[in-house]
Fold these 2 entries.
Entry 1:
Amino acid sequence: QVQLQESGPGLVKPSETLSLTCTVSGGSISSYYWSWVRQPPGKGLEWIGYIYSSSNTNYSPSLKSRVTMSIDTSESQFSLRLSFVTAADTAVYYCARRRRLAASGDAFDIWGQGTMVTVSS
Amino acid sequence: AIQMTQSPSSLSASVGDRVTITCRASQGIRNDLGWYQQKPGKAPKLLIYGASILQSGVPSRFSGSGSGTDFTLTISSLQPEDFATYYCLQDYNYPLTFGQGTKLEIK
């Protein structure tokens, strides 16, 4: 079955750029919406944005100025870059697949296990 | 952005209890709502989408209802494995927004 795996540095310095990659295995990366969701320690979930397999993107307005997402369909990977990070960006970062499950039902049906990123000098 | 307000924020219940969690949207979202379960250290898991459609493999004791601005997740008879945090998520428009979560604890 389809699996997602996040990878990237677990520690990033303030003002630098956080870079994460999500590898899709067991299925196609094409024709799906791929999202990043984060969760600060002890807090709730926050949607960061999505990238479609055509490279169309949509970012949360609260992060839009600092976020870039990209996709490499040949490698079955998509990536997140978050620039000028601060301690407030410390969180577990999840990648997830969103797809239409019914006529009026989109949902995140597959999630990666998550990767903890700490912003600290 | 649409705000999603869950209540209660936390809930203590016993095995076998019937539990209801509520999610209210700041504007109408038709039935574009999902419910997710998250256990400590784990990724969220989809339970319900389209407000009331049970995801494949999810036990039938879970059910969802609602449309417009008010939604509920009901667990008909709590099992030990149901103690977790539950989130609603609106996917009516962007940015997608989650509720703040409801932590379900053992009484």
Entry 2:
Amino acid sequence: QSALTQPASVSGSPGQSITISCTGTSSDVGDYNYVSWYQQHPGKAPKLMIYDVSNRPSGVSNRFSGSKSGNTASLTISGLQAEDEADYYCSSYTASSTVLFGGGTKLTVL
Amino acid sequence: QVQLQESGPGLVKPSETLSLTCTVSTGSFSGYFWSWIRQPAGKGLEWIGRIYASGSTTYNPSLKSRVTMSIDTSENQFSLRLSSVTAADTAVYYCARELYGGNCDGWGQGTLVTVSS
């Protein structure tokens, strides 16, 4: 199982919107609506931001949204804020009933 | 809000077995999947595997030959054993509550395990 593909880094200015992509295969992202997104600040545990492609857990800002098309899922953060600067990871359920993570994307708020 | 806490040795010798326990407090233990995930320094997350309250397990194929997970529902604990460790197994190990579909909605703070002689 190869990791899902994410860009190594993205950046944006406060107030702008950014999108992070997560590309898998027809055996994971493309076949299941079980894509999650996690935010991880340095030295901290990951935090679930989006589950089941586009659902937000209670307490997560509506500036975070998720979508999927084919084998690629996307996380969009609108109204970028300094506190959004972190690493972001996608994950997907797979045909083997396992979980596959992406390599992670470092978001820099300029 | 579920709370999880990892515990175990921070240093393991090469070729030996890494053993960690996760204690879960606040909320129901049965009826959920419980997972282990690790992260080498400066690198991404790697799912190790999950165990259900019934004891059924699913492991990452790349680690399957070395991984054993167990669960003690009476103590609200689940455990990880990783055998024949090498330096490549040095990482922060997280335990997490995993919902159906692989979403992990609760995480421990993580514990660093270093493999070194």
